[in-house]
Design a protein that fits this description.
two-stranded antiparallel ribbon, five-stranded antiparallel beta sheet
């Protein structure tokens, strides 16, 4: 997939192929210390598998809403 951002539409076993969606709004967990608000660009921290606001991590979409540590993110398939 290269630099595309995709969200698995069902569980995909390691090394297997499966369907992914490259557009839509999905719920993700954010880093507890991350201050993300509606309209922000969210970045994906691969080691923690959570969203943050760190520009050195890949941008994955725009924040639609935040509820505690859950971020509803509009994913754009670059």
């Amino acid at each position: 997939m290269g630099n595309l951002v995709g969200v698995a539409v069902a569980d995909i076993a390691s090394g297997e192929v499966g369907a992914v969606s490259t557009e839509g709004v999905y719920a993700f967990e954010k880093e507890a210390a991350a201050t993300l608000i509606q309209g922000d660009v969210a970045h994906y921290n691969s080691p923690t598998k959570k969203l943050d606001a760190t520009n050195s991590n890949p941008a994955v979409g725009h924040v639609v809403a935040v509820d505690g540590n859950t971020v509803h993110l509009k994913v754009y398939g670059h």
